[in-house]
């Protein structure tokens, strides 16, 4: 069976796996973004706190993804829980680092001007600092998403959702008729999803970043 015949016969299952893969990455990115920006907001004013946050999230990223999932299985079981925890933790570093860099890069004179017109610290953060730091934060989100697209495939090891199941089935049956087709279909599916997500982020950037800041 050719690759195109395989896609024609399995397109419904592949589409379902792709949706599950995209959904898992999207939901974990939402959580990672909220946590990462929060950590950045809490730590960016202090040199040692910012370094500690970056060092901690960097340390998490050095743990092999297969080992991370394997360590979580006895604690949270198989399926979605180890997938969500692993992807969320791995997605933190680029967001935390870019949040800290972006917030520290805000022009102090703009912050002083906001303080001078009576803005509270929280209002300055929400209306001045975070909007100006948004471009590097969005870049961190894009980088995290691309990483998680590939790492999410390893979730199949813990019976997680997504295209990793297609790849693992192909690898487990190497030598059979459709083994290569399965691996290729799963791999190409992840690449296509990564490109679609990145295109969506480009659109979000154009809609949310003023032209002057983009330039």
From TrEMBL:
<dbReference type="GO" id="GO:0031460">
    <property type="term" value="P:glycine betaine transport"/>
</dbReference>
<keyword id="KW-0813">Transport</keyword>
<feature type="transmembrane region" description="Helical">
    <location>
        <begin position="24"/>
        <end position="44"/>
    </location>
</feature>
<keyword id="KW-1133">Transmembrane helix</keyword>
<dbReference type="Pfam" id="PF00528">
    <property type="entry name" value="BPD_transp_1"/>
</dbReference>
<feature type="transmembrane region" description="Helical">
    <location>
        <begin position="148"/>
        <end position="171"/>
    </location>
</feature>
<feature type="transmembrane region" description="Helical">
    <location>
        <begin position="51"/>
        <end position="73"/>
    </location>
</feature>
<comment type="similarity">
    <text>Belongs to the binding-protein-dependent transport system permease family.</text>
</comment>
<dbReference type="GO" id="GO:0055085">
    <property type="term" value="P:transmembrane transport"/>
</dbReference>
<feature type="transmembrane region" description="Helical">
    <location>
        <begin position="183"/>
        <end position="204"/>
    </location>
</feature>
<dbReference type="GO" id="GO:0005886">
    <property type="term" value="C:plasma membrane"/>
</dbReference>
<keyword id="KW-0812">Transmembrane</keyword>
<dbReference type="InterPro" id="IPR051204">
    <property type="entry name" value="ABC_transp_perm/SBD"/>
</dbReference>
<feature type="domain" description="ABC transmembrane type-1">
    <location>
        <begin position="18"/>
        <end position="201"/>
    </location>
</feature>
<keyword id="KW-0472">Membrane</keyword>
<dbReference type="InterPro" id="IPR000515">
    <property type="entry name" value="MetI-like"/>
</dbReference>
<protein>
    <submittedName>
        <fullName>ABC transporter permease</fullName>
    </submittedName>
</protein>
<dbReference type="InterPro" id="IPR035906">
    <property type="entry name" value="MetI-like_sf"/>
</dbReference>
């Amino acid at each position: 069976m050719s690759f195109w015949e395989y896609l024609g016969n399995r397109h419904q299952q592949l589409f379902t796996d792709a949706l599950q893969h995209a959904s898992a990455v999207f939901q974990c990115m939402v959580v990672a973004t909220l946590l990462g920006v929060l950590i950045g907001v809490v730590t960016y004013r202090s040199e040692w706190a910012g370094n500690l946050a970056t060092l901690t999230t960097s340390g998490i990223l050095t743990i092999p993804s297969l080992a991370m999932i394997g360590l979580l299985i006895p604690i949270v079981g198989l399926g979605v829980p180890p997938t969500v925890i692993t992807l969320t933790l791995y997605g933190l570093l680029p967001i935390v680092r870019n949040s800290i860099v972006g917030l520290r890069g805000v022009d102090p004179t703009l912050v002083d001007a906001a303080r001078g017109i009576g803005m509270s610290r929280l209002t300055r953060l929400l209306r001045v600092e975070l909007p100006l730091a948004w471009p590097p934060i969005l870049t961190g989100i894009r980088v995290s998403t691309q990483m998680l697209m590939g790492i999410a495939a390893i979730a199949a090891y813990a019976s997680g959702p997504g295209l990793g199941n297609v790849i693992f089935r192909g690898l487990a049956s190497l030598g059979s008729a459709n083994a290569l087709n399965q691996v290729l279909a799963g791999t190409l599916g992840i690449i296509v999803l990564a490109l679609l997500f990145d295109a969506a982020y480009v659109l979000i950037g154009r809609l949310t970043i003023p032209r002057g800041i983009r330039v």
